[in-house]
Amino acid sequence: MFKHDRMFPRFALYGFLKNLRFFDPFLILIFRDAGLTFLQIGTLYAVRDVAVNVLEIPTGVFADAFGRRRSMLMAFGSYLVSFAVFYLFAGFWPFAAAMVLFAFGEAFRSGTHKALILEYLKLNNMQHLKVAYYGRTRAASQFGSAINALIAAAIAFYTGGYRVMFLAAMVPYVLDFINLATYPPELDGELAQVRLSTIGAQVKSTLKSFVGMFKNPNALRAILNSSGFSALHKATKDYLQPIVKTFALSLPILLAYSGKQRSAVVIGIVYFFVYLSTSYASRSADRFSKRFPNLGRAINVSFLLGSALLVLAGASAWLRWDAVAILVFLLFYVLHNLRRPMNVSFISDQISSKVMASGLSVESQLTTLLSATFALALGALADAFGVGAGLMILGVAVLAIFPLVRVPEE
Fold first, then answer.
1. In the predicted model, is pLDDT for residue 142 greater than 70?
2. Residue 343, C-beta contacts closer than 8 angstroms, at least 6 positions apart
3. Residues 140, 282: Cα–Cα separation, whole Å
4. Nearest 10 degrees: Cα torsion 174, 114, 367, 240
5. Residue 396 CA to chain centroid, in angstroms?
6. What is the pLDDT of residue 275?
7. CA 104: distance to chain centroid?
8. pLDDT band at residue 138 using 50, 70 and 90 as cut-offs
9. Which tens digits make up the pLDDT trace of 182-213?
10. Distance set, CA 100 to CA 44, 86, 196, 316, 398 (Å)
11. Buried/exposed 116-146: b ≥16 CB within 10 Å, e otherwise
12. Is the pLDDT confidence value at 104 over 70?
């Protein structure tokens, strides 16, 4: 569908390289190896998310008023410094500092690259392809995550440790920095050319349109629905790692190797198939949405189904049915990636393209605020009752808020 599109390979490459964070499939295990409790891990996640939350709106306004490409370059510079701190230091406080640096990257990036894509579609009269186009670029990201899992497993297996993954992740991020630096300037949008004499008026205009989004109840519900589910996924997805580790150590394979090496192999294989499945799911988002009478119905049904899957995954882990828990988690990941392109398309229909980066940054801001809350709650619950019970309780709580986030289905 897009093989003659000059920017699609560039957008896809961005997502592929961005997801080569080799430490991702092992992050909770890295923190546990450093002696942290689940509550401390949840606190680190909350530190990251609160920092993103504080920075989200001003960085979104910066992207709209002063250039989305420049915002993306600042994001990747922050990521690289964060990886260096994670590699060089260990312990709760150094990790917290690295999380704040990582948050700078997330705040400058979130919503901004989506706005670049949507601006490109607008300039080329391809807006009717939003779900399919964004779904396919997201598929490249998820394929990157699948390859990432195999490379990360190989690194852990041959080095016997996890920390070197932060150093290795700097390589694809430098390449992505170069890719972003060469994006065409017209993707910055109509506010890309900023003169000193008009900066104040342009920022005021951007902020006025930004505040106006909250006066539209359909836009607000769309943002709440998207951010609530994304926060649930973000806060819980890494808890697949200890479940897979327990499952790996119960298998009678690779007994001549250490527990860390054995678990690394199984984690790599599991995450490879998880992200291979999510890559296909992102490509299929458009077809999935068309199975419903309208996009709103698809978003509402998938919200309920995803929350129920998390409850089932938690129950399976609690009962020590680790294989079942892993399979249900895979379905949860797939559903999240089916939803994401639909959410972006639905939200973009409610917001002026002039403030698209700011609008999507609002969604990201709410996601990080809710994710911080969920992460702290889940960490405390996991320490008190175990990972499985914590996942169950959180899933039930999110199911209960559905009436507040139900989007219109007309």
1. yes
2. 222, 225, 226, 229, 230, 299, 363
3. 9
4. -60
5. 22
6. 85
7. 15
8. confident
9. 998 888 766 544 454 545 655 566 566 556 66
10. 9, 11, 31, 34, 27
11. bbbbbbeeeeeeebbbbbbbbbbbbbbbbbb
12. yes
Predicted confidence at residue 221, as pLDDT, reads 83
Nearest-angstrom CA–CA distance, 89 and 94: 6
Tens of pLDDT, residue by residue over 35-60, are 999 999 999 999 998 898 788 767 76
pTM of the full structure: 0.81
C-alpha span between 329 and 314 (Å, rounded) = 9
pLDDT for the residue numbered 291: 81
Give yes or no for a contact between 360 and 63, defined as CB atoms under 8 angstroms apart: no
Q: What average pLDDT does the chain have?
A: 85
Query: How high is the pLDDT of residue 64?
Result: 67
Element spanning 29, H or E: helix 27-33
Q: What is the structure's pLDDT at 110?
A: 74
- Alpha-carbon distance 173 to 246, whole Å? 32
> What is the spatial distance between Cα 303 and Cα 296, in angstroms, rounded to a whole number?
11
Helices (H), 251-355: 259-283, 285-289, 295-318, 322-348
Work out the angle at residue 352's Cα, subtended by the Cα atoms of residues 349 and 353, and round it to the nearest 5 degrees.
95
pLDDT of residue 120: 86
In the prediction, which pLDDT does 386 show? 94
Count of Cβ atoms closer than 10 Å to residue 376 Cβ: 18
Q: What separation in angstroms does the CA of 193 have from each of 68, 71, 123, 313?
A: 11, 14, 17, 50
Of the listed ranges 65-79, 126-140, 243-257, 347-361, the one predicted with least confidence: 347-361
User: Burial code of 96-112, b = ≥16 C-beta within 10 A, e = fewer?
Assistant: eebbbbbbbbbbbbbbb
No. of helices (H) and no. of strands (E), the chain: 19, 0
CA torsion through residues 383, 385, 389, 395, sign: negative
Query: Could you give the CA distance from residue 350 to residue 2 in angstroms, rounded to a whole number?
Result: 26
Q: How far is CA 92 from the centre of its chain?
A: 23
Structural domains of the chain in order of their starting residue, each with its CATH number: 8-405 (1.20.1250.20)
- Count the helix, strand and coil residues of the chain and give each as a percent rounded to the nearest 5: 85, 0, 15
